[in-house]
């Protein structure tokens, strides 16, 4: 008997069996009561619905029960809240796993201290007990799902901020690289507004003949806010006027007069008096830049961790599994 061939054949069969077992394990359906997965931890539907119920009661207290059907960007308010609650629970689990990996723990003493402050914020013992009952919560739920997750999130932010180390040099570098953002172009212009095109053409001919713009604006303009000031609108940056007006005003040089400009308000004739660039100083926006970069660092770190922990969302899959289980 050829033992070498037998050994090779046995190893091949073993390899195929292991590959088959691994493949089956990898394609295993998630539990029917799971809505998401972080690493090897499932977020269960009952806990998700419990969290969702708390948020729903808070929103109804603020806005009433009609809020749920309000459209916000192509989805109902309810759908948006459902997505946000699930995302929060995923973030909480991701942060918890990361902090435990980094050996950053939340002690029971820290939780108890925050819990006592949480109780005080609600009111007396009787008020707090009623609050727990109304929101289907108990002491353990508050400590684990509200207090501990909140403390983890706080320490996570502190760690990211410390790791990012946003000193003045980094902030100034961002400011310099994005100087256009802090250089605001402004125009000072006058205009004459009338309803009829023929009237606008008549006024434009007067201007071309050398008549005074301010005098004609005072006489003919239908804009009550500027007519008495000779049509003067003062300085304004981009994003203030309607697009047609803005495009023309910023394209003119000081002293130039436009042709007729039609907008939703009527027919305009525009004269640019001055142009200027107002540069916002670094010191005036330093804290704003720091806040922006800090938020970006936290979001980027969180998104990176979600990829590392292979986050999955499958609330729909969970529903499908339920239906399949019923059929079986």
Automatic annotation (TrEMBL):
What InterPro entries is this protein classified in?
PPIase_dom_sf, PPIase_PpiC, PPIase_PpiC_CS, PrsA_foldase, Trigger_fac_C_sf, Trigger_fact/SurA_dom_sf
Which branch of life, at top level?
Bacteria
An example of a GO molecular function for this protein is: peptidyl-prolyl cis-trans isomerase activity
- For the keyword Transport, the answer is no
- Per UniProt, residues of the PpiC domain are 184-274
* Matches recorded under Pfam families: Rotamase_3, SurA_N_3
The Gene Ontology biological process annotation of the record reads:
protein folding; protein transport
* Keyword annotations of the record: Coiled coil, Isomerase, Rotamase, Signal
Q: Which residues form the signal peptide?
A: 1-27
Class of this enzyme: isomerase
Residue ranges that the Swiss-Prot or TrEMBL entry lists as coiled coil: 272-326
Which SUPFAM superfamilies did the record assign? Answer: FKBP-like, Triger factor/SurA peptide-binding domain-like
**Catalyses which reaction?**
[protein]-peptidylproline (omega=180) = [protein]-peptidylproline (omega=0)
PROSITE patterns reported for this sequence = PPIC_PPIASE_1 (PS01096), PPIC_PPIASE_2 (PS50198), PROKAR_LIPOPROTEIN (PS51257)
Q: What is its EC number?
A: 5.2.1.8
Stated name of the protein: peptidylprolyl isomerase
Lineage of producing organism: Bacteria, Bacillati, Bacillota, Clostridia, Peptostreptococcales
């Amino acid at each position: 008997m050829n033992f070498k061939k037998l050994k090779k054949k046995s190893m091949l069969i073993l390899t195929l069996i292991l590959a088959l077992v691994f493949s089956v394990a990898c394609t295993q359906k998630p539990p029917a009561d799971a809505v998401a997965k972080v690493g090897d931890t499932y977020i269960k539907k009952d806990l998700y619905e419990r969290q969702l119920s708390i948020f729903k009661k808070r929103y109804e207290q603020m806005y009433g029960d009609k809020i749920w059907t309000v459209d916000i960007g192509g989805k109902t308010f309810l759908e948006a809240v459902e997505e946000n609650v699930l995302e929060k629970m995923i973030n909480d689990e991701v942060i918890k796993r990361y902090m435990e990996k980094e050996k950053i723990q939340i002690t029971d003493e820290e939780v108890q201290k925050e819990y006592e402050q949480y109780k005080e914020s609600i009111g007396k013992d009787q008020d707090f007990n009623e609050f727990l009952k109304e929101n289907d919560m108990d002491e353990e739920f508050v400590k684990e799902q509200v207090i501990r997750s909140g403390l983890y999130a706080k320490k996570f932010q502190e760690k990211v901020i410390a790791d990012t180390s946003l000193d003045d040099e980094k902030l100034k570098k961002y400011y310099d690289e994005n100087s256009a953002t802090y250089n605001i172009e402004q125009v000072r212009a006058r205009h004459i507004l009338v309803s009829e095109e023929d009237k606008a053409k008549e006024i434009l001919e007067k201007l071309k003949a050398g008549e005074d713009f301010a005098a004609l604006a005072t006489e003919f303009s239908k804009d009550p806010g500027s007519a008495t000031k000779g049509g003067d609108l003062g300085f304004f940056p981009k994003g203030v006027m309607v697009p047609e007006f803005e495009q023309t005003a910023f394209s003119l040089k000081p002293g130039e007069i436009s042709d007729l400009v039609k907008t939703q308000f009527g027919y305009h004739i525009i004269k640019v008096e001055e142009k200027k660039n107002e540069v916002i100083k670094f010191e005036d926006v330093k804290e704003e830049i720091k806040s922006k970069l800090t938020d970006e660092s936290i979001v980027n770190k969180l998104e990176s961790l979600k990829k590392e922990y292979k986050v999955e969302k499958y609330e729909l899959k969970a529903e499908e599994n339920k239906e399949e289980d019923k059929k079986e």
